[in-house]
Amino acid sequence: MASICQQESWPGPVVVPLPKPRSPYGLPVLLDGTRTAPIRPYVLAVERADQERERERARQTRRRVALVLAADYRVDLDLHVIGAERAA
Question: Per-block average pLDDT, block size 10, for the chain (88 residues)?
């Protein structure tokens, strides 16, 4: 009994040669430093998250101040809203 490979005349595995390894130091053209990112993307992501956290903290502080002024001293900071002075 012949195997499946012999019956169908299977050509066998295709061998593809790997490209030759090359070093960036051996390139004929110099690398352009102005076209490369001077900082890693994860560092920028952390900085953006810190800035967003600071903005949110400042917004929360403004909300708390408005709440304390409204509750303790009956000062309404929402005068820019149309009709807010009548409701307060």
Answer: 57 84 74 74 90 96 87 72 56
Q: Are 24 and 31 in contact (CB under 8 A)?
A: yes
Q: Give the residue carrying structure tokens 């295709």.
A: 14
Does a structural domain hold residue 3? no
Helix (H) or strand (E) holding 5: helix 4-8
Contact 79, 71 (CB under 8 A): no
Q: Which domain holds residue 59?
A: 35-88
d(CA 85, CA 16): 79
DSSP one-letter code for 82: T
- Measured from the Cβ of residue 76, the count of other Cβ atoms closer than 10 Å reads 14
Within a domain: 52: yes
For residues 16 and 4, what is the distance between their CA atoms, to the nearest angstrom?
A: 24
Q: Which two tokens stand for residue 3?
A: 């195997």
pTM of the model: 0.44
